């Protein structure tokens, strides 16, 4: 029991210090370890299994929408990075430079990819000749490097894992359609697998990606009311195509520039999952990406037949679910705390009395509710329970977001509420850069995105008072 | 037909120029493209799909033997690389150095990982405390960088993809067992999925990995008689553990050093598949890793009902196999050449007459044999055909290896045969470094490995004539 207490005390309460609560969890739930390389993290087996599950689902969704995977070099020659001016200006300040191979100085510096638009463009210029070659729908799973000053596990680290889709199209319409489609894939994935509601919308010009015509994002609200950009989708128009001379012969045999998109989701999304669902006992994992969906803990395991029955259940359930059987010598209390810390959605307890009664106990991680269920049809009971946990995690997050979403009709109102509370703040904006910058400064928050399909609050910009048709979500961001 | 001819002519014959045949294939079968980054390649969708299939199978085999995946940083601080002396001496001359983050010079240079022993050791020192923490069985899928002077697609490039297993054990016996077990996994995988026979054996001290106690390899013989090291497994003993102070408390509460292994397979193995099975029409892919196992080509596809029937077959077969349906406007001849170039194991042809007769034609890529088969039980027919192709690819490679394996009882004999032929050369060696170096110089070949379970040819070293119990495979290597 002393050990048990120690484990629980190891986490700071989220109300006391949210940032510390977060780092306590990533460390104590064995998701990451710090490495000897400043700003880089080690993703441990439990954290990596979470990423593998995310990868598997997303990769399947990408393939179902016609995309295929490739692998580009991790290095970008300086001259290649320099080809698109806005892009290089956006990324050059935060790239890592390779200057030597072995003992020789390189003739040209290479940066470690912060993102791979330039490499994909260089390749596409090589392989796209005619309209028959279009569209090209490529994706890449890899790690990228951005030399950040301050870092936090998953949320901001010098190296992180991600996928980057890069596509080329014959027309502007197709490129736009792809950009929106992949944003939809991310939103759908967030809802169906992460139980995480997101706001889909367009970024303002200030917040868009370096070199993009338009950037779209999904934004999620964390437990502390800060918002996190969980995925982005960019429409590049023909900007890169012109810089890299990517042209195709159309059906009339005329040269045309290609229209381009890119879209990405990274290990950052694991940080979002932690901060949307976690509680003061640790992680709370959504069932469909949880490395372990169900842990079986025998009660009074020294008694005859208990471990045998638990093992029998394990063997029958492991074909259908990701199951662990904990027959270690730790106390039941220690096991409960440990598995709660790791956010396993369901704990199955079985002891001598349960065996006698042909039942077991299922304990939900999210609500701690205890269910006494028959061993008959256990598989179906568990399936339904996982689905119910998933749905209730989603509903809870949705309700919390609604509670923490505010409307402001004036800049003063926005500043006042923003000074007191964290959350999403809805306010109208005219579309002027100067107004956005002023709002950002006065209210101390950034525009998150311009949501699809939401009704305007008023018809006036909260900053200049001029006509405005853009509803913007504002917030404090990770 | 002109186009068709052009496609076929694009490949150099392997008898004329094997190296050129190889690069023609990797390029024309759309496996890779050259990039603007010297010595780095782009793995295109077809090449990457091949790697994904290899990954999926190997990853399953690793997990079935108790291993789990993690992710370590891609950078190694210079001081960390320097901790194990032999290791740094082996790798420092060929690493890429990062010296700047953004515009700032780093206080300490970082190398891009050429392999991750040092990073794993640093982490293991942190997390291993007691015998209860052992064994640790980690694996990582990632890319690594070695600054090679001359490069060739898949075989030797500055960046390549691989997996690296790194494990820690309580005893020397367990570490040895793991080293041999994982070598066995590689050999088993090569046989069952790549249809590639390999020689399992131990490397001599000259050829072993920098810092290892013992290195084991699987060696495969290519079409041109050169050998290729297709996978390695290293036993490190306690060398790194001592350099990194990785100790655990044993059951008697005494501190002990951990015993360590590492093992890896890279995209190089794709080069091996090409050079073991390919022919003058292009790739010949082993069915169980082929991205497309079966391509359906409708004959006289403008005739009524042909495309419909082909589509019907496609829909019914795609659940069970990786299938493509080629209804493009290219001529049947062009399609045949193209799919042969890409090494698709089976081509299914179906035309109006076949439909009338309730049959179709299956054409094997490896032997070009045509089979007229009934549409009933087509799934089973194809399953059996794929298995038969797999087996016959393996048998053919095995027979070719036997034909190209020579025995030499003297150094003179070895030099004479070696000057005339390429292949595996079996010869006895006393175990002395000087003898190995002399043989290497005189016969112009390197020791591949000391095979498990093979009978000695004589009892004397071919170099010094002293007693020898080590049979060695010698050869010219990639």
Describe what you observe in this structure:
The structure is a homodimer of 478-residue chains. With 478 residues, chain A is α+β, with helices and mostly antiparallel strands. Chain A contains 15 helices and 23 strands. The first copy, chain A, has helices at 2-9, 18-28, 45-64, 78-81, 85-91, 117-127, 172-192, 239-244, 268-277, 306-317, 332-341, 352-357, 378-403, 411-420, 433-443; strands spanning 32-34, 41-43, 68-69, 75-77, 96-101, 104-112, 136-145, 159-169, 199-202, 214-221, 227-237, 247-249, 255-257, 259-266, 294-298, 323-325, 346-350, 359-364, 370-374, 405-407, 424-429, 446-451, 470-475. In chain A, strands 3-7-8-14-11-10-9-22-23-21-20 form an 11-stranded mixed sheet, sandwiched between helices. The longest helix of chain A is centred in the last third of the chain and has 26 residues, at 378-403. Chain A starts with a helix and ends with a strand. The model of chain A is unreliable at 1-5 (pLDDT under 50). At the A-B interface, strand 2, helix 3, strand 3, strand 4 and strand 5 of A face strand 2, helix 3, strand 3, strand 4 and strand 5 of B.
């Amino acid at each position: 029991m002393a050990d048990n207490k120690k484990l629980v005390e190891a986490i700071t309460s989220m109300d006391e210090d949210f940032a510390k609560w977060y780092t306590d969890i990533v460390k104590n739930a064995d998701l990451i370890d710090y490495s000897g390389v400043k700003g880089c993290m080690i993703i441990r087996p439990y954290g990596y299994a979470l990423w593998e599950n995310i990868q598997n689902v997303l990769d399947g969704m990408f393939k179902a929408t016609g995309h295929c995977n490739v692998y580009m070099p991790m290095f970008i020659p300086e001259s290649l990075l320099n080809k698109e001016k806005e892009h290089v200006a956006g990324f050059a300040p935060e790239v890592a430079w390779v200057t030597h191979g072995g003992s020789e100085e390189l003739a040209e510096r290479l940066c470690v990819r912060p993102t791979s638009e330039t490499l994909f463009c260089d390749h596409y210029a090589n392989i796209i000749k005619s309209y028959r070659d279009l569209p090209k729908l490529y994706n890449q799973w890899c790690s990228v490097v951005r030399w950040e000053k301050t870092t936090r596990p998953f949320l901001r680290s010098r190296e992180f894992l991600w996928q980057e889709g890069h596509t080329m199209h014959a027309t502007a319409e197709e490129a736009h359609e792809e950009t929106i489609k992949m944003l939809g894939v991310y939103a759908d994935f967030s809802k169906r697998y992460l139980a995480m509601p997101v706001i889909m919308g367009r970024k303002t010009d200030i917040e868009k990606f370096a070199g993009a015509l338009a950037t779209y994002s999904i934004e999620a609200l964390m437990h502390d009311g800060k918002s996190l950009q969980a995925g982005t989708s960019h429409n590049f128009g023909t900007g890169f195509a012109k810089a890299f001379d990517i042209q195709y012969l159309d059906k009339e045999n005329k040269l045309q520039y290609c229209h381009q998109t890119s879209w990405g989701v990274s290990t950052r999304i694991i940080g979002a999952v932690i901060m949307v669902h976690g509680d003061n006992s640790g992680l709370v994992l959504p069932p469909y990406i949880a490395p372990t969906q169900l842990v079986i803990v025998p009660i009074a395991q020294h008694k005859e037949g208990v471990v045998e029955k638990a093992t029998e259940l394990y063997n029958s359930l492991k074909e259908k679910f990701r199951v662990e059987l904990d027959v270690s010598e730790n106390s039941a209390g220690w096991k409960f705390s440990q598995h709660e810390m790791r956010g396993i959605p369901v704990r199955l307890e079985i002891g001598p009395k349960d065996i006698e009664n042909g039942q077991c106990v299922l304990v939900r991680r999210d609500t701690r509710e205890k269910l006494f269920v028959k061993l008959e049809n256990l598989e179906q009971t568990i399936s339904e329970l996982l689905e119910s946990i998933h749905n209730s995690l989603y509903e809870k997050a949705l309700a919390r977001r609604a509670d923490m979403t505010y409307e402001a009709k004036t800049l003063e109102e926005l500043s006042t509420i923003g000074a007191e509370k964290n959350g999403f703040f809805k306010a109208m904006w005219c579309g002027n850069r100067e107004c956005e910058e002023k709002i950002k400064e006065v209210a101390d928050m950034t525009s998150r995105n311009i949501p699809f399909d939401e009704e305007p609050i008023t018809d006036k910009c909260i900053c200049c008072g001029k006509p405005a048709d853009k509803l913007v979500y504002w917030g404090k961001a990770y």
